[in-house]
Design a protein that fits this description.
It contains 3 helices and no strands. With 96 residues, the chain is mainly alpha-helical. The chain has one domain. The chain is elongated and about 40 Å long.
């Protein structure tokens, strides 16, 4: 099974990352989402495909916490929050 997940925009309010930190964050999000989808699987509602226009990630990180945290660790947290939203938690849900 192939899964194509496209994130058009990720907004991190008040968090300033250098280009290299943004790339590390992106790699961490992609890797953790791939891991979660491989280990925990695709939610049943997604078996036939669909879209989500807006998925709020229920994750609160202050700018101070983000600057003290490794971008890879932050990326894993963001990916876990996205996956929770895909499963229908934290306000997420499928629009077939």
């Amino acid at each position: 099974m192939n899964i194509n997940l496209q994130i058009d925009r990720l907004i991190l309010n008040g968090i300033d990352l250098s280009p290299s930190q943004r790339r590390r964050l992106q790699v961490a999000i992609e890797g953790e989402l791939a891991h979660l989808l491989t280990v925990q699987g695709l939610p049943a509602d997604w078996q036939a495909g669909g879209t989500i226009a807006n998925l709020p990630a229920n994750l609160t990180v202050t700018p101070a916490q983000a600057s003290a945290q490794d971008p890879s660790s932050l990326g894993q947290q963001i990916a876990q929050s996205i996956y929770t939203g895909l499963r229908g938690g934290a306000g997420g849900g499928l629009n077939p």
